[in-house]
Amino acid sequence: MKVIWLFFSFLGLIFACENRSFDLYLEEAQVSIQEVLAHLAKECSFSVVYDDEEIGERLSRKLPIINIKKGGLDDIFELLFEVANLHYSYANKKLNLSILQTQTFKINYLGTNREGSSSTSVLINKDTKEQSFEGGTQGFSKSGVDIVSYDGFNFWENIKQELEELLGEDVGIVINKGAGLISIKGDQKQLKLAKTYMDTLHKRLQAQVMIDVKILSVLHSNTNTTGINWEGLYGLQNINILGASENSNLGGEGNLGNSSGINIIGGTKASRTYGLNIVHQGLSLNEIVKYLKTYGEVKSISNPKILTLNNQPAMISVGDILRYKKSTIYQNTNAQTTLTNKDSEYPSIFAGVLLDITPLIFGNEVILKINPSITKTKENRINLPALAFETPPNLTTNQLSSIIRVQDKEKIILGGLISNTSSKKESKIPLLGDLPLLSYVFSYSQTLESKEEIIFIIEPKIIHKKPPTLKSLGYEMLKD
Fold it and tell me: Which residue range or ranges hold the Type II/III secretion system secretin-like domain (predicted)?
């Protein structure tokens, strides 16, 4: 065994050990922590205080090969007690040692839970039960399709379970949701691991994404159209499309291309009328709209911008709340009279465009979970009643769901949600067209059938540490 100690000071040995530099060299791993600590305590004239027998056992551990040159007193303490897995504090010539210590972490997150669910059901036979004459029940089977999607985010409940799995169930964890504080009691290794985890978690939680959404309606002039042929977008950027690949596992026969900023998912080699396209930020919105106008009239339904936290759902709803009348009749019959009561309720349903987007940031990329839904009334009622519908309106729904990965500021174009619409065109000669008997002669009415396709253009923008400006969020100053 060979131990070499060399002590240096900046201005001489008259200064305390806190202001001196040390060289510590251990050639062989046969020296215990307690031996080094005793030598250092004698040299610097300080006392070591602890009240747990297990601390003495940990100080008896052998040290590995150590070589410290011009290190301070804290550097040596950090090294010794990292090996012993002990907490320490040094003040007034007294070194206090402990196994457990409590550290409080601050988390900037709301003390609420977020939950959401959506369901799509197509039932052929309803599962019901009826009373039979014999007193038993008769059941009917249910067949059809029932798709349920559930999203829940209970941060404060999950974080305690995650910390217990990471640090061990014997660690004391106290959570104050109202103040956003998490206190953890553990040894040095546990608190260091908790700090690393909490720092990473806090950084991920505070990341934000600005989602720029443009919802467009294309009224196709050709009623026999099968939708927009997105292959025309490639010509706007002079892009060479990669051919179809037999080894593709993306749900279609198409390959995932990445040429000059366009990615393609799905489709076939013979016909590339894709419903999902990822476009490089170099392709402007004006060029996309100009291309869409070659298929028919383009209208803007909505242009929302939503700023949301990482991995938190953003909801966009554009449409009408339709109410209808629901009447219930109650009858109470006795030996002499029959009493009838009528109760009316006004349930509501939504008709319009609903878009659910959840972003997840990875470096300079964003994974987006996108769920658009379009609901319309079958009757194409243009004028909504002042109070409520007398009967529940029949609805048609177009839905799709997709999870995609894009670069920051790349545009995602979702299309293919086509529905048949009808409108009524009327013209008449003033006064004469309003006469009861002559209105058919001096007026003209025609029902026009057309196809409408809803287009979603989604552009995620990662908000970096630098405060965003209006220009970086996509806003422009109006010019005279």
Answer: 292-463
